[in-house]
Amino acid sequence: MLLGILLPSSAQQTAEDGTVYVQSLFTYPVAPDYLDNLEARSDWLMDNFWNDMDFKNKKGVNQAALQHAFGVYAGPMLYAKKAKVLNSVENLCKKAEKNPTLMIQLMKAAEEEFHSQRSTVYIDEVYRIFLNRFLGIKKIKKERKAKYAAQLAALDATEPGKPFPQGESAVTLPAMGSRGTVVIFGNTADDHSRQMLLRFATSVRAEQAVNSGEFEIVFIDKAEEPAMEMPSYIKRVYCEKPQLNYDLPFLPDCYLLDKDGVIVMRNKSIADVLNGAGIQL
After folding, report:
1. DSSP 181-227
2. How far apart are the C-alpha atoms of 36 and 45, rounded to whole Å?
């Protein structure tokens, strides 16, 4: 089913093809014409995007419409000044946190937009603001906060420059390469992980990098029993809930560690991590 958006004056409708049109929460602002470059227009949107939003509605809002608004809001973040983006998010949360019902919806929309399998924009600093603000609201029950508290802890524990968490409830890597280690989180029962592993099965260069001792490639599998035959040079470790210790907005998700087990890259595609390691599939 597709989701479209209507102007605020329109009612919710369902088209003949099954597309559901949801009334927008407000008319999205358009940067003035006198701003003639992308950064300036994006900065303006960061300052003004939520001006017409009703933050006082104690009954909440349409979640689908809020999600659509978030998608429109996130786009200019890629082009605006960093300070503008962070200030915009802080101000948004300040307005919303006075209304716990709306803040719960806002947190859900932020997770979907910035920290999920379906996200198109991943900005850790932005998502961290939402997490900290949400967790600081006393009127929201601890049960609702538990998942987000775990996300924040994992986000903090796996920052680049920190040691890769191992032992206790975390995984233990079976080996480390003399130059580094590629850690892949996935699920051999999932098509995306299977397709990626099949590419490794035919990669001579990746196998050579492992056989030389320069790198180790470790696959952290959510499946208790492997749902496919692993490439012989990739070491497999089972972990049912890796998200409890590692920041994993999507799967498969890849980390690159240096020779001492310090995180160099996280939440990257396998192509980005292998490029960082100087390995080609």
Report:
1. EEEEEE-TTSHHHHHHHHHHHT-HHHHHHHHTTSEEEEEEESSSS-S
2. 13
Please state the φ and ψ torsions of residue 218, each to the nearest 5 degrees.
Answer: -120, 130
By the 8 A CB rule, do 218 and 237 touch? yes
Least confident of 14-23, 137-146, 154-163, 164-173: 14-23
pLDDT in tens, 122-162: 899 999 999 999 999 999 999 999 999 999 999 999 999 99
Using DSSP bridges, classify how beta strands 20-23 and 3-6 pair: parallel, antiparallel or unpaired: parallel
Distance, in Å, from the CA atom of 219 to the CA atom of 239, rounded to the nearest integer, reads 10
pTM value > 0.70: yes
Residues facing 256 on adjacent strands? 182, 265
